[in-house]
Amino acid sequence: MKAKNCCKTMEMELTGWKAIVYDITRKMEKLPGGEKEKILPHISDLHILVEEMDERIDQIRANCKPETGMEDIISERKAFDAAISTLRVTTQEAMEGLAAGDFGG
């Protein structure tokens, strides 16, 4: 896979995850006071996470040029993989704070 394709894939995956996290955050913010209070730390964490994803997306866009080689993005790819694994755990914890009927269609 060319570096440009890898970068585009990372950008698209981060954008998709950002949309999921944003949706979870919105649903959490709509919870009644007592329920919302229990998961307030998760809401703050998710806002920080969205900001970090925005920064990572901007980094990918700025640093991935047609002439970029795979060896040039190895550290970015490792950071991306680590961030995605953390993201999956964070979103799972956040979703556990929502009742089953509060998320989805």
How is this structure best summarized?
By secondary structure, this protein is mostly helical.
What does this structure look like?
This protein is mainly α and 105 residues long. The chain has one domain. 76% of the residues lie in helices and 0% in strands. It has helices at 3-29, 33-38, 40-63, 74-96. Helix 1 (3-29) runs parallel beside helix 4. The longest helix has 27 residues, at 3-29. The radius of gyration is 16 Å and the shape is elongated. The mean pLDDT is 76.
Q: Keyphrases for this structure?
A:
0% strand; 105 residues; elongated; single chain; mainly alpha
Secondary structure class reads mainly alpha
Topology as H/E string? HHHH
Low-pLDDT sequence parts: none
What is the average per-residue confidence, as pLDDT, rounded to a whole number? 76
Question: How many separate domains?
Answer: 1
The percentage of residues in β strands lies in under 5%
The assembly state of the depicted protein chains is single chain
First and last CA, distance: 35 Å
Number of helices: 4
Major sheet summary line:
none
